[in-house]
Amino acid sequence: MPSRSVISLALIALLAGCASQPSEAPKATPIEQSKAPQAKVLNQLSGSLIGAPAGSEVELALLEVDRRNKPDKLLSNVKLSGRGNELPFILQFNPEAFSATQRVELRGRVTQSGQLIMRLLPIQIHQASDQALGPLRLVPVP
Question: Where is the signal peptide (predicted)?
Fold first, then answer.
């Protein structure tokens, strides 16, 4: 009989251990949509691209641009795969890295087999807030 009480106590202790709260909450897996410097709160630009052919590689970048229209600093970017139809995107960025004195633009390019085939005409982003840009048309590269 004593062995039964020992087994019962062991089972109760095991169940009690399983029922208790873990000492550390599991960490959430980060969203791998864009590469932005880590911040407590990320803002995002969202929309969709029109015209990216199936099998193409699409890259969108949020950039600080100098007076000569040359990229000065990468704020965030995301790479997508063209599907031949409307391609939704979310580009997250750190609002603290957003410059109030420098022009900020969203730019995009589409490559296929290593060749540049299309691009997104630059879109100036005036505020470091969440923005829905809607459908954006890609244009062929001459």
Answer: 1-25
What residues have CB less than 8 Å from 116, skipping those under 6 apart? 109, 110, 141
Please report, in angstroms and rounded to a whole number, the separation of the first and last CA atoms in the chain: 89
Mean pLDDT in each 10-residue stretch from start to end of the chain (142 residues)? 48 46 42 47 93 96 94 95 95 88 94 96 94 97 88
Q: Which CATH class is domain 43-127?
A: mainly beta
Could you list the beta-strand ranges (E) of the chain. 43-50, 57-65, 71-81, 87-93, 103-112, 115-124, 131-137, 139-140
Measured in whole angstroms, the distance separating CA 16 from the mean position of its chain's CA atoms is 41
